[in-house]
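Our preliminary data section would be incomplete without showing what the modeling component actually yields. Below, a chain of 261 amino acids is followed by its predicted structure, encoded as tokens that our downstream tools consume directly.
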Amino acid sequence: MSSSNDNAINSQSNTESISNQFSVEQRSREFIWKTFIIVSLQIAIVWEICSFVLLTETLRHWMSNTPWFIWTCGILGTLLQLEMLLIPQLQFAFPYNYMYLIVTTIIIAFPASVPLIDVEIWWTFVTWIVTMVIAGIVVGVSVLRRFDLLKSFGPFILATFVVELFFCVVFFPFIYFEEYDILIMLCGFAMIWTVISEIGIIVQALLGDRRFTFRNDQHVLGGLIIGMLIIWLHLLVSTEVAIFHVLFSPKQQTPAPSSLG
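Predicted structure:
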């Protein structure tokens, strides 16, 4: 009698295990598709605004001479993105979460287009190709159901701001003494280091830490964070391209003054 009860219990547990596994796999596929749609929406918005800025001479001239607008968009967009992460009512209240997401993405897109203002238009597509290749490698080798996006986002933000703050402090003497050539070279290496560090943090969060467990209620949050990472990665890549374009572009030779006598 006891053996039959044990068999029944084992059979029930096996059925529940298979059912749970199927449910997790189904939610994982749903998570991947929703994340892909949200990220694609963000990328399309940023790409369109970048192209619009580069193709509109008046807007490009106005943005290049209005730094307060760029700083306002950058700070406001970052705060709105963080608010989306911290307030659950905004995360999951459809359709307001998607409307909020579109608005914040538009705001973030303007700072992302600034580094490319003085660079050839076709560099825009090059920077997006580089960005999407990097993001594709990171996401492609990951197992999306095995990480917690909130935990991976914390180290990302901390590392990004610490690195940027460190370089701002280091670069201040070069700005004060007007050593711009050295500053440009250091900025290029800083951008490369920052991108590599961020990719390392993302990869570690996706693959290397078993604490990152899949949660079903993070569809919108997952798309938001991954899309935000891609947007800021594009901002870094485009800035790096602009820096190296200025550094290695042919300088205009000024005519030597003619000697009198």
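Confidence is low (pLDDT under 50) at residues 143-150, 208-220, 252-261. The radius of gyration is 24 Å. Preliminary results of this kind motivate Aim 1 of the renewal.
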